[in-house]
Amino acid sequence: MESLNMKPEEIETESFRIIDAEAGDHGWPDPEWQIIRRVIHTSADFEYARTMLFSEGAVAQAIAAIKDGAGIYTDTNMALAGISKPRLLPFGCEANCHVGDSDVGALAQREGVTRSVTAMRKAIRNRNNRIFVIGNAPTALFELLRLVQDKQILPALVIGMPVGFVGAEESKRELAASQFGFPFITNVGRKGGSNVAAAIVNALAILAKQA
User: Fold this and answer.
1) Is 108 helix (H, G, I), strand (E, B) or coil?
2) CA-CA distances (angstroms) from residue 78 to 27, 135, 182, 206?
3) Rounded distance, CA 209 to CA 163, Å?
């Protein structure tokens, strides 16, 4: 049986070396590439090097929001668990998720909508929630865009990475085409997930520390 006698940080360093080597001349500026390579590291999927989308100035605006202590709302507890709290702690950023709250479930059942929708409505009532991380539910992203259109919230950043066959691609397309003026990070297609959404936050936190 083979064993890998490497420390965690050595494994991560070697992983990024392999990613950089295999990606070759990817054409991305360094800040965006730091985010994409961490997404690839999390997913082992090089397709993200071709499908990621960043609004103009998104990385710089995201770093500014983190350094300002912006609250971070996630659409799943999985994304919440994947975000590195120690990396956010120096900036005073708190991450939260309401999808499992009992009042959210009860309201969703009464109104005949998904928990993700009612959770998003609850999330915007906390005005410190300025970064929205969506890695699972297209309904959460559609609802956030509706709330922005209704002028109930203007996010400091939207990370839109919902995954799946129903609505995921469409919700990301709507995000990319939005003209509301907020920065966003997303991708084209059905792929995404809570793990890659969390990876983007972690990459931004590292960049914020370096800035």
Assistant:
1) helix
2) 31, 9, 25, 20
3) 29
d(CA 123, CA 130): 10
Q: Which two tokens stand for residue 159?
A: 């990370």
Rg (CA), the chain: 17
Ranges of beta strands (E only) in the chain are: 52-54, 71-74, 95-96, 129-134, 157-160, 184-187
5 assigned to some structural domain: no
> CB-based burial of residue 73 (10 Å sphere; 0-12 exposed, 13-18 middle, 19+ buried)?
buried
Per-10-residue mean pLDDT for the chain, 211 residues long?
A: 76 95 95 98 98 98 98 98 97 98 96 97 97 98 98 98 98 96 98 98 98 90
If 0-12 CB within 10 Å is exposed, 13-18 middle and 19+ buried, where does residue 4 land?
Answer: exposed
Q: Residues with catalytic annotation?
A: 41
Q: Residue 77 is part of a domain; what is its CATH number?
A: 3.40.50.10230
